[in-house]
Amino acid sequence: MNILITGANGQLGNEMRVLSAGHPEHTCFFTDVQELDICDAQGVKAFVRDHHIDVIVNCAAYTAVDKAEDNADLCDRLNHLAPGNLAEAAQAVGAALVQISTDYVYDGTAHTPYTENAPTCPTSVYGRTKLAGEQLALTQCSRTMIIRTAWLYSTFGNNFVKTMLRLGRERDRLGVVFDQIGTPTYAADLAAAIFTAIGQGIRPGIYHFSNEGVCSWYDFTLAIHRLAGINTCTVSPLHTDEYPAKAPRPHYSVLDKTKLKQTYGITIPHWEESLAQCIRRMEQQ
Predict the structure, then answer these.
(1) What is the CA radius of gyration of the chain?
(2) What do you get for the CA distance between the two ends of the chain, in Å?
(3) Quick count: other Cβ atoms within 10 Å of Cβ 168?
């Protein structure tokens, strides 16, 4: 199949690029804004048509959650309108669209893992625009697969794991929020799940993907330092209100992955296992 991966220079896009080497049966077109502006509806249609695209995987997004509060128009163009452009282009040629979304579509007030049919109630510009992008993509393309994920990290780009590694080596003490609960997602595992879905055939609908298990950002940080051998930095738990941010964060955003696992027969690693693998890869770079 011919696969278009947008946002190819980001964390997930780069992991898709790495894994594509193991899928020579597919021809992958990796684009970022320099090669294809997904806000340009006509340009997107022309690219999809001219390259005979069978599947679009949209890894592009405005993900600066706090900056989004002051850049709502740009955030809306990238997270809401652009997925609509991709969906229209896919629909025009009978292609499928895999749209990556987020746990921020929920308000984080639940106490049990969110299933795909749980009520959405985003509390930030980022969350609202991502939800609007989901809805537009589902409306414009009958073969749209939404994958909501959370706490994404990888060996590429900037992310929480890299920040905690750097701060752990620079400082002797660190405070990290302990009352926000979720599950980290290793982008390489998500990329593998996407290739599995493409190989078996995209089945439209909304799905969840993160690694298995549950933790707080504080627990996550302790595991990062332990696995990296950092033992000179004392990590203390903070309440959310001790670390104010412009955009509200979900206090609980654990995602139920049953639907994806049953639909595609996927086994998902525990977050600590994947974190260890990622840190090993970082050390080899």
Answers:
(1) 18
(2) 31
(3) 20
Q: Please give the angle made by the CA atoms of 13, 135 and 194, to the nearest 5 degrees.
A: 30
- Alpha-carbon span 147 to 99, nearest angstrom: 6
Alpha carbon 207 to its chain's center? 12
180 with 160: CB under 8 angstroms? no
**What tokens were used for 272?**
């600590």
Backbone angles phi, psi at 56, to 5 degrees: -110, 130
The domain defined by 2-158+183-212+253-269 folds into Rossmann fold (3.40.50)
Cβ neighbours for 197, distance < 8 A, ≥ 6 positions apart:
98, 145, 203, 264
* Amino acid, res. 180: Q
Q: Which of 114, 126, 153, 207 is catalytic?
A: 126
pTM of the predicted model over 0.85: yes
Of the candidates 252, 264, 280, which has an alpha carbon nearest to the alpha carbon of residue 112? Answer: 252
Q: What are phi and psi of 94, to 5 degrees?
A: 75, 25
Domains of the chain, residue spans: 2-158+183-212+253-269
Average pLDDT over residues 268-276: 98
Residue with tokens 């249609």: 45
> How far apart (Å, rounded) are the C-alpha atoms in residues 166 and 164?
5
Identify whether 126 is a catalytic site residue: yes
Would you state the structure tokens that stand for residue 198, as one six-digit string? 């493409």
Determine the Cα–Cα distance for residues 97 and 234; give it in Å rounded to an integer. 45
pLDDT tens digits for 201-225? 999 999 999 999 999 999 999 999 9
Asked if 110 and 250 touch (Cβ cutoff 8 Å), the reply is no
